[in-house]
Amino acid sequence: MPWIILLFAGLLEIVWAVAMKQSAGFTRFWPTALMAVSMLGSFTLLALAMRTLPLGTAYVIWTGIGAVGAFTFGILFLGEALTATRICAAVLIIAGMVTMKMA
Q: How many Cα neighbours within 13 Å face the side chain of 45?
């Protein structure tokens, strides 16, 4: 169950990162409100998962889901560049997450 909670915490991290981008520096109300709510939810779920999971593992997985998810969202929906270097970086993040999980 803590892994499922951690997955949802990571997904909410993607939501708050995207909402932060859409808030235009906190000048737009609804994206800013969504960011605050999803951030609170993400941190809460992370804290719940950390009751059982090791700190390092939980944090790496949480940030990795958020980083790769935001990277993917940016490419698919915001027209951000898809380059070999950026793909390599995302693969390395995923490799780090898998390695941390196996450790």
A: 21
